[in-house]
Design brief:
Blueprint lengths: L7 H27 L3 E7 L2 E7 L4 H9 L3 E6 L4 E4 L1 H7 L3 H4 L10 H11 L7 E8 L5 E13 L2 E10 L1 H22 L3 E6 L4 E4 L1 H7 L8 H4 L3 E2 L17 E9 L2 E13 L5 E10 L1 H23 L3 E6 L6 E3 L3 H6 L3 H6 L14 H14 L3 E8 L5 E12 L5 E10 L2
Antiparallel strand pairs: 1-2, 3-4, 3-7, 5-6, 6-7, 8-9, 8-13, 10-11, 11-12, 12-13, 14-15, 14-18, 16-17, 17-18
């Protein structure tokens, strides 16, 4: 304990010191009461300590309180001495619960290690890091921290600025989605058109612009693509919307004197609340396919006509065991005496049982050699007619193979050469 002053000069000196200290306390108290300074009492091992943020004039305080970022002053250990209302708003927590709390309590567990690294005394000044706050409602808030050290009331402290990245992250996600949708539209092989709820075109792929002959954005779908269904009815991108499933129909489009066959799919474009935003229309050009189908039907008709007029039995027999023989004309009844349905499904399931016993082994051996060698074959043999007579036959066949090289069936023709 220091010695008590005994002389008048000592008493005067002590009185002057006490007066100076009292004036300092009164000034600090006045600043706290008037709002010019923020203060926080912190209990510690050495007793309660008073921390103040001094020199905050009205314009400075207004700036801090109205800035879009969160602003904090912390002890080196992470105790929040000051926080503006923006930071409390990020947390969805009253400001009075934030001030005086441990800063790590407001960060997601996976961000706390990095936070402590920022608060360490050996951390570089103006260090920056992207972390996540844990708001009161449990939602993680991505933030960008800027941390620097300062001395506050001769206490080593930390100044922190917190930038809310939610809007930026949202914009980045929107931008990424926009880039993805643009890439899809640019590279799509089909014509893709996106319409709003009124049927007005908002987006169009390159193929859609080529089909239209220009950029159709801004036009009504029915005007840009006057489609007619196979029954002649007009196809509308609005009336075709089904909120439960996509609609796919065939339609025709006339453009510059040329007619296109299109497969049109209309899908429901919805928002986050499942509300109707418009439609996505995909137009697949099937003109070439339809032409091929027409040509194939004509070719099949010509083949059937040819088979019907052939003077021999035109057949297809599958190599798989248990498969029945198929005939493509009416000659079997004339050559064998059996009707086609008898040969296909009756007790005589093919003509093999009708071949004379002494001829059958050689015929079947030649067919097996042709299949193994992937070549055509030609054989002659005698066949028993239904009336008991014997007929001489000449058979020509060709095995057909699948993509894996395995035999599928034999196409052939049998002539009566009696």
């Amino acid at each position: 304990m220091p010695n008590k002053p005994t002389t008048q000069p000592q008493l005067l000196a002590e009185n002057a010191d006490l007066r100076t200290r009292l004036e300092k306390v009164e000034t600090t108290l006045s600043e706290i009461l008037s709002g010019e300074s923020d203060a926080l009492f912190v209990a510690g091992v050495g007793g309660a300590q008073l921390f103040t943020l001094k020199g905050a004039d009205q314009s400075y305080r207004t700036l801090i309180e109205n800035m879009s970022e969160g602003a904090l002053t912390l002890t080196a250990e992470g105790l929040i001495l000051y926080a503006n209302r923006r930071f409390a708003g990020m947390l969805g927590t009253p400001l009075e619960k934030v001030i005086g709390s441990d800063i790590s309590n407001w960060f997601a567990p996976e961000s706390r290690h990095a936070l402590q690294a920022l608060l360490r005394k050996d951390a570089a000044d103006n260090h920056r890091e992207e972390l996540s706050l844990a708001a009161a409602d449990g939602i993680l808030v991505p933030v960008y921290l800027s941390v620097s050290r300062l001395v506050l009331d001769e206490i080593d402290s930390v100044c922190m600025v917190v930038t809310d990245l939610r809007e930026q992250k949202c914009n980045e996600a929107i931008l990424a989605a926009e880039k993805l949708s643009n890439a899809i539209l640019e590279q799509a092989a089909d014509a893709i058109v996106i319409c709003d709820e009124t049927g007005r075109i908002m987006r169009a792929s390159k193929q859609a612009q080529a089909l239209f002959g220009n950029n159709p954005i801004g036009q009504l779908f029915e005007q840009a693509f006057p489609l007619r269904q196979l029954d002649g009815a007009a196809l509308s991108a609005v009336s075709a919307i089904d909120t439960k499933r996509s609609l796919s129909v065939e339609a025709k489009l006339e453009r510059n004197g040329q007619e296109f066959d299109l497969l049109v799919s209309v899908g429901y474009l919805k928002g986050e609340l499942d509300e109707l935003l418009g439609s996505v229309v995909t137009l697949t050009d099937i003109t070439e396919r339809k032409q091929m189908e027409t040509e194939l039907r004509a070719s099949e008709l010509a083949y059937r006509t040819l088979a019907q007029n052939m003077p021999g039995m035109v057949y297809r027999v599958f190599v798989r065991e248990g498969e029945r023989m198929q005939f493509y004309n009416a000659m079997p009844v004339l050559i064998t005496g059996y009707a086609v349905d008898e040969l296909a499904t009756g007790p005589v399931c093919s003509i093999e049982p009708l071949i004379l016993d002494e001829d059958r082994p050689g015929v079947m051996a030649e067919v097996r050699r042709a299949i193994a060698g992937k070549r055509a074959f030609a054989v002659e043999y005698r066949l028993k007619h239904k009336d008991g007579g014997i007929r001489w036959m000449a058979e020509h066949g060709m095995p057909v193979y699948g993509a894996n090289g395995a035999p599928l069936y034999i196409d052939g023709v049998i002539f009566d050469i009696t």
